[in-house]
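Re-run with default settings, no changes from the original entry. Doing this only to confirm the output is reproducible before filing.
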Amino acid sequence: MEKRITKNYDNGEVTVVWQPHKCIHSAICFRGLPSVFDPQKRPWVNLDGADSATIVAQVEKCPSGALSYRMDGAAMLNGHATEKPGVSAASTVVDVKPNGPLLIQGELIVKDAAGNEEVKSKVTAFCRCGFSQNKPYCDGSHVREGWEG
């Protein structure tokens, strides 16, 4: 069985959690907030590069769920409590990316052919091209294969 690494980066207000096995290398994190996410540096996540609210907003854009966050203690963002309500089924959004994955935003359960269930929340990227080695999830293979759709 493949060993799955999880890394935590903490600034006292927010902890950013990185699960590299989920990453599809869309570079949305790096392009959106290079002062925090820089794959050329070690560690590649620098939470001193922006305020917690800006970091959380960028992490929420991660299409694969490789980046997530949790608020530490009783931290506040912009004067509001950090606890977020769950996303209801009524607020699920399906976003078809041109020449890319199918992004599902919201809470869902993914059931495989054997009946195993995995709970997903926030944004989940599903493969549309058929080339992913991590089906049903997108692994970025559409870029390498030049897939259009």
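Helices lie at 28-32, 52-59, 141-145. The two ends are 33 Å apart (CA to CA).
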